[in-house]
Specification:
alpha+beta, 104 residues
Length: 104
């Protein structure tokens, strides 16, 4: 019996096959669960197969986007562009020189 219910976008590990994947779609009409493996391959499980599996939930792999071509930063779930410093495009030369004086 599976150790976890399939949840869209969650990551799982198949203990028997030692494969990592995430759920990318759940099709209730066709009674299937579509997955994408860490290497980028797509797969599908019937709900009954899932229930008899040895799948268990895991944290997303550290570099899960490596095998995916053309992944945009927005698609990875990051929303912070990490621009915590002052934006030099919005600063005048006087502002920059003033900042340098305060650092000394």
């Amino acid at each position: 019996m599976s150790l976890a219910d399939p949840i869209l976008e969650n990551w799982y590990k198949d203990a028997d096959a030692d494969r990592i994947f995430r759920v990318v779609a759940i099709d209730v009409d066709n009674d299937s669960i579509e997955v994408q493996y860490l290497n980028g391959d797509l797969g599908e499980y019937e709900t009954a197969t899932w229930e008899d599996s040895s799948f268990y939930p895991i944290e997303p792999p550290e570099d899960w986007s490596a095998p995916f071509d053309h992944v945009e930063i927005d698609d990875m779930g990051y929303s912070d562009p990490d621009r915590h410093g002052r934006d030099l495009d919005d600063m005048s030369l006087e502002d920059i020189l003033d900042d340098e004086e305060h650092e000394e």
